[in-house]
């Protein structure tokens, strides 16, 4: 059986590329060619072979108009640009922002403005990264821009508060009453439970009673969290056990642990004891947070 060899097809573009003149016989010429395609899509046929299929061009589905359910003030559209458009459970969700300071960011669902506030942290200088979750009721979108904390929005809640769904009414939740903290994903870090070491009075080594005197009579617990440059904070760590502080403790008649007698009184914020609590904190600052905040609950 004789092996059959096919001629080698080599096309080089040393003097520019020849544009096609007849798309039906593209490839018949020995010279290099390329295809000028408008509203076309490449469809795989076999291996590296692709066919071009005509598709419809872009179509404006929803014009950018002021259709807020509570149109407070005048909304103009001079410099708005679309920063995100994705389909979530059959609804087209868009995010718009403007270079004009007085034109606040917008969220639209199916062409309806469902959120409009200066607190929406969308800026044309910071392109958006986004994802969606269609497994929950109504669907959700996740938005971040590497500049502000990530946000989560429920599509159903956006539509409900704009009166788009049956039985719902317009509210100011995503407009004049918008609070970005309600939709912000809190930053996270590895947090450990603080440890109570001992109760001290005065200053000795690492033990320092902060202030002119110690704590008042009562019980105390401690926790901490991380804070970044923008003021975003992690949740607080687990708190310590309640640590009692008494009015006075007697070191006489040792070796009873810790002392043989203690004297206390009713809590009084105007009358401090000489004692402070030595608390040790272990932390792991992988995300380079700027501060540690220590909280004392009394």
Overall geometry: elongated
Strand order of the biggest β-sheet: 5-6-7-8
Largest β-sheet summary:
4 strands, antiparallel
Average pLDDT works out at 81
Give the count of helical stretches: 1
What ranges have pLDDT less than 50 throughout 5 or more consecutive residues?
none
Record field, number of beta strands: 18
Please provide the ordered H/E string of secondary-structure elements. EEEEEEEEEEEHEEEEEEE
Beta percentage is: 25-35%
**Using only CA atoms, what is the Rg?**
33 Å
Q: Distance between termini?
A: 95 Å
What structural class do helix, strand and pairing data support? mainly beta
Helix content: under 10%
Describe this structure in words.
- The protein has 298 residues and is mainly β.
- Among the domains are: 80-183; 195-297, no CATH class.
- The protein is 2% helix and 32% strand.
- It is built from one helix and 18 strands.
- It has one helix spanning 155-160, and strands at residues 18-19, 33-34, 40-46, 49-54, 80-88, 91-98, 106-109, 112-116, 129-133, 140-144, 151-154, 195-201, 218-227, 243-245, 248-250, 261-263, 275-280, 291-297.
- The strands form seven sheets. A four-stranded antiparallel β-sheet has the order 5-6-7-8.
- The chain is elongated and about 100 Å long.
- The model has no long low-confidence stretch (mean pLDDT 81).
